[in-house]
Amino acid sequence: xxxxxxxxxxxxxxxxxxxxxxxxxxxxxxxxxxxxxxxxxxxxxxxxxxxxxxxxxxxxxxxxxxxxxxxxxxxxxxxxxxxxxxxxxxxxxxxxxxxxxxxxxxxxxxx
Length: 111
Known about the structure:
mainly beta, 46% strand
């Protein structure tokens, strides 16, 4: 397979529910995946999810009425196929969500 896919299920909470709109094209929020060398990918797909309550309570225990769940999918060519994005082989992956009200980064290190 010449492509790699990363999919994340995340929960986002804002104090104003209307600002929780990662899936919209005109959203103020920017979501990306950054490898250990600083190369950045932007989502192939970013969808708001309607999940069963039991799933959300299990995987997103901090969920409130202001939370929304999303599926974020990134895809790229493998490095040996010409992609600059090194993926997990670069030693680190960071899921980044940033906007005018703040941001968060979740980093996974691989060895």
